[in-house]
Amino acid sequence: MTDARRWIDRWMERGARQLARRTSRRSLLARAGAIMVGGMTLPLLPVARAATDDGRVPPPSDDGLPTANGDPTQCSYWRHCAIDGFLCSCCGGTQAACPPGTEMSPVTWIGTCRHPGDGRDYIISYNDCCGASLCMRCKCTRTEGERPVYHTSKNNDLLWCFGTKSRAVHCSVAVVIGVATKPT
Amino acid sequence: MTDARRWIDRWMERGARQLARRTSRRSLLARAGAIMVGGMTLPLLPVARAATDDGRVPPPSDDGLPTANGDPTQCSYWRHCAIDGFLCSCCGGTQAACPPGTEMSPVTWIGTCRHPGDGRDYIISYNDCCGASLCMRCKCTRTEGERPVYHTSKNNDLLWCFGTKSRAVHCSVAVVIGVATKPT
Amino acid sequence: MPRAAIIAAAIALAAAISVAPARAEPEPETVGAVVTLPESPAPHWFWQSDTLLKRTALFDGDSGRMLGTINSGSAGVGFVIFPVFSPDHREIYIAESYYSRGVRGDRTDVVTVYDGRSLAPLAEIGIPPRRAEYFPGNAASALSDDGRFMAVFNLTPLTSLSIVDVKSRTFTAEVPTPGCSLVFAAGPRRFFMLCANGAALTVSLDEAGGAPKVERTAPFFKPIEDPITEKAVRRGNEWLFVSFAGVIHPVDVSGPQLAFGEPWPLLDDADRQGNWRVGGLQHLAVHSASGRLYVLMHQGGPDTHKDPGTEVWVYDLANHRRLQQLSVVNPLVSFIALQSAIDPSTTSGSLSRWALEKSLPNPGVERIVVTQDANPVLLAGSSMPPSITVHDAMTGEMLREISEPGLAGTLMFTP
Amino acid sequence: MPRAAIIAAAIALAAAISVAPARAEPEPETVGAVVTLPESPAPHWFWQSDTLLKRTALFDGDSGRMLGTINSGSAGVGFVIFPVFSPDHREIYIAESYYSRGVRGDRTDVVTVYDGRSLAPLAEIGIPPRRAEYFPGNAASALSDDGRFMAVFNLTPLTSLSIVDVKSRTFTAEVPTPGCSLVFAAGPRRFFMLCANGAALTVSLDEAGGAPKVERTAPFFKPIEDPITEKAVRRGNEWLFVSFAGVIHPVDVSGPQLAFGEPWPLLDDADRQGNWRVGGLQHLAVHSASGRLYVLMHQGGPDTHKDPGTEVWVYDLANHRRLQQLSVVNPLVSFIALQSAIDPSTTSGSLSRWALEKSLPNPGVERIVVTQDANPVLLAGSSMPPSITVHDAMTGEMLREISEPGLAGTLMFTP
Questions:
Q1: CA nearest neighbour of A152 among C134, D362, C368
Q2: pLDDT tens digits, residue range B56-65?
Q3: Other residues' Cβ atoms within 10 Å of the Cβ of residue A118
Q4: Which residues of chain C neighbour A145 with C-beta distances below 8 Å?
């Protein structure tokens, strides 16, 4: 329980950091952050401060991985451990980029997935690509660590097209935004 | 050829009569009639005059017909010989009535189908039910006597939702509006 | 379903509906006839919403016929299609979202009032364009117990409720609900929501649907250790929630304060040994009169809370005892059999049906619902492939299958 | 398609697109990256419109990947999704229809200009809300040969053309076209249509896209005896129409007047004995350079002009001789094999594939299109089940299958 708490805590901080850095919608995010906290018993670092720190890490190489967890068009791809949606790799995008004509949502849900190559846990930002109707290719629903709608930051039922011109969701990417260090 | 001509001629007249009688949209129909004529080498009775005559006949009884051509939810139902769309009998309507929440188009395409019971040819008015999205049940495409779009009155590719509040098509009915008497 | 049944149903319906042509002595037909539904719903009617067809469709569980549809939302928005029904069955209220250009342009959110018999729109009430969009959309809207106020759940990701007076056709208030989501009816002037810390939030209104009073309860479930799902069912004044681990959390809404009943487990050690878990998109159903609770179950690992169910377990709410374990019909078999018109009443038909059952693995179903009459039916639905099977809710016996129920069924509702 | 191919394609694409992450030496990824298409289309790119998904989607025939989509129309209107492509590939123009409330409300018709690389809308040009709605929508729009004027076919059921200047982004005229329908490009300032009496109607414009001159030709086909379909293809200045009875009617648009070439038959007595007929929703394709005409054929009775085709017959336009008879891949087999991930490269895979071929009747395909490069591919598509197979257009050999191409494919286009 305590451990789990700390995990959530850590993910949410990192999530918030990344989001803050990646977007100009500070106010929206500040409120989003606040709201997430609203229902949680733990504090979230002020977005302003978080935004100054840089935790970017390169994604691990997928070379040599078997198709099952090394192919971004597969639901079983390692980054997809908590994804729910259509894989952008099948929709004209990649595992980290949206298809043409869509816009990536700056707000997101966060998961952590273990890379089968180096065995490390990576923090994955599952962003929706917005502005087109459902891609309808490579539907993938995985719920490891996923939580109900009231636990907003860990929920993948939600259409995460927030702060985008359109709320229409097309597909989802899985961007590596950090490494999850084991609790000490 | 000449025969065929006369057939078309007869169907179109009857069609126009029925349509005229069934709708208040005289002007629309007058123009529609005119337009159909525009491309044909044969005259169409003035809608006003046609409207005064009454050629309504009761539909033949389907009692005792085998399921294949006696069941209005079947594509093979005898009235469906030139239908293209979703059968309203499967969408909350009947072979002659629209489902709740939809509106029957006064303008229509006309076909002629033989009743397997009495062996007579009946003139069928294929009206679309409009104001809802595709029913997506009991899709039926039959093209006996059907002609391309430029032959408007004999075409079933067209969404026949004209003169209705919405042009959205939901399903199609097959209303008996007359008997086709053999050419003498 | 055997054709005979359809025709019988057609005749049955013909009696019920206003404009049906008499089949025995045909009389001239007129262009323009439109079917109107009877005053009150038949006992086994149910609705199924469809995200792709952007509609909710009414079916008759007895005939298997589709009786009508209501369209809601445009291609890009309005995922959540959650009809709520006036107690007198005269009206249906649906919160809808539209873009001026399908997936883009100006967004408009409204509550549309539909006539219960003609299914035609009667009125449109504007609400803030902040409706929550999530799949499949359980607990997205709620109607106050007296049928006057409708609450619509907003998430931007800030959460709030939009309150609409459906009688006066007016939007009365937007209530900020920090950290709390979803919406459940809890009396004539009260709703409640679930919060991320395991508490509930009650929202109380005055007679005009304004002056909202917002109160937070103490946590009643453990959101990290064993979260409850939002896929709850209501029996009288009691809401029943189930947790990932299969523990029922009752919430009584009769008093001035919400009362949280003693949680009780659906699973014993043997069940847990067998990795049985609650799963699916609509995994609880209740028959109020008999006090039977239906739960969609599957075998799977932790965090498989959305996996389709292969069995429906039935419990007696009086003593929490499990009464039955019903296995669901393979939706793949049902789909293929109906599409290829395999008639189980013939020898060859029953044979090929048997062959399909043997050869195709059962992917399970995603949703269940139960009607509230004295002889209730249990409806089990799957989206991929599209399938709905109708069962005797007491014995579990399959009564019929509904062909072509839609393309992407999301939630089922009883009027 | 073997996964290896997909990955190869992914890498190939990665090279082509601006923001693809380098796979060999990964560097930190950023949130917000969006793929942009290359300057000009690859030789085997093609689009497929989808009536249910309300979109047209771009596919790469070499990799089988979907490269992007453009949404058009709302649930109730805008059946016809007919993209036209600027000669320089910079822009895509689509006539679209919308209702303010999905299937009801105020209707708006527009021509939307999309960027060829970002697929994002650049401009919107209002047109009269009278677009023809028909299925699948062949010859619904046309772009003048110099890429400046777009004509949109209207039917209310009065017929007319809406003319749009896509360069100045203005609607210039609506031209009444009594008794004539559909629209085909016929020069820099001219379009033509087909009339119910077997004639053609030419519509000529001035430099500003106005002052339309409308002229009716003499009948060139027999609309009652043997009507031609609107599913024509163009090779240079010649349009090729085919009649229900399989007679090709060439129409030359190079001169001041349309010139009608000598009709010639696709079928000999033996073919007619065998009841071979032209059918399907997009049943002609032509490869201009080689002068090969592809025709979708099936065996059926009279008036089966929409029946799917089980064979593609290839003709040499130079001498009207039939070069090949290619049988199409069973779309049902293709669909099931891809959905159940049957890998034909394995023994068991090829075995089950063979079993499927043997056990499932071939419903045929509805549409074909051919690319215009030196090594063209033939694309064969079916809606139910959704399937697209890619073939060598010279040998007919199947190169690959495209999984999940959509829900209701209507027409295919080459940019």
A1: C134
A2: 789 999 999 9
A3: 11
A4: 303
| List of residues 6+ apart from B183 with CB closer than 8 A | B3, B6, B7, B10
Residues 123-162 of B with CB under 8 A from C: 125, 127, 129, 132-138
Give yes or no for D75 touching C (CB within 8 A).
yes
C-alpha angle D71-D74-D79 in degrees, rounded to nearest 5? 85
Q: Which of A11, A78, A84, A109 is catalytic?
A: A109
Place of tokens 């453990």: C222
For residues C235-248, give the mean pLDDT.
98
Residue C290: partners with Cβ closer than 8 Å, 6 or more residues away: C376, C394
Looking at residue B182, what is its pLDDT?
58
B109 is catalytic: yes
Q: Are C303 and A143 in contact (CB under 8 A)?
A: yes
Q: How far is residue A43's CA from residue A10's CA, in Å, rounded to a whole number?
A: 11
* Tokens describing residue C245: 């681990």
Give Cα separations from D350 to A145, D299, D333, D353 (angstroms): 39, 29, 12, 5
Q: Which partners does chain B have (≥3 C-beta pairs < 8 Å)? A: C, D
- A2 falls in which pLDDT band (50, 70, 90)? very low
Structure tokens at C185: 């009816």
Top pLDDT among B83 and A182 is at B83
Q: Quick one: tokens of B172?
A: 């199609």
More confident residue, D89 or C343: D89
| Residue whose pair of structure tokens reads 């379009």 in the numeric block | D191
What is the distance in angstroms between the Cα of A84 and the nearest Cα belonging to chain D?
18
Catalytic residue among B109, B118, B121, B160: B109
pLDDT of amino acid A16: 36
Interface with A, mutate which of C135, C281, C284 (most A CBs under 10 A): C135
A110 contacts A14 by C-beta, under 8 angstroms: yes
Both structure tokens of D82: 């007919």
Q: Is D98–C101 a contact, with Cβ atoms under 8 angstroms apart?
A: yes
| B4 part of contact set with chain D, CB < 8 Å | yes
- pLDDT (mean) for C196-203: 98
pLDDT of residue B39: 27
Instruction: Mark whether A128 is an active-site residue.
Output: yes
Q: Which of A20-34, D98-112, D172-186 has the lowest mean pLDDT?
A: A20-34
Q: How is residue C181 written in tokens?
A: 């989501």
Which tens digit of pLDDT belongs to each residue from D354-412? 888 887 889 999 999 999 999 999 999 999 889 999 999 999 999 999 999 999 999 99
CA dihedral C326, C329, C330, C331 (to 10 degrees): -130
pLDDT of residue D25: 56
pLDDT higher for C325 or D73? C325
User: In the predicted model, what is the mean pLDDT of residues D313-317?
Assistant: 98
Do the chains A and B touch each other, judged by at least 3 C-beta pairs below 8 angstroms?
A: no
The average confidence (pLDDT) of chain A is 74
Interface test with C, best of B120, B136, B167 (most C CBs within 10 A): B136
- Asked if residue D211 has pLDDT above 50, the reply is yes
Min CA distance, A57 vs chain D (Å)?
A: 5
Mutate which of A94, A120, A122 to disrupt the D interface (most D C-beta within 10 Å)? A94
| 8 Å CB contact of B158 and D133 | yes
Note the pLDDT of residue D351.
86
Spatial distance between the Cα atoms of C95 and C183, rounded to a whole number of angstroms: 13
**Which amino acid appears at position C107 of this protein?**
R
Question: Does the pLDDT of residue B42 top 60, yes or no?
Answer: no
Measured in angstroms, the CA of A150 and the nearest CA of chain D are apart by 25
User: Residues with Cβ < 8 Å from C181, sequence gap 6 or more?
Assistant: A149, A150, A152, C132, C153, C155, C159, C193, C194, C195, C196, C230
How large is the C-alpha radius of gyration of chain A? 16
Q: Is A59 on the interface with C (CB under 8 A)?
A: no
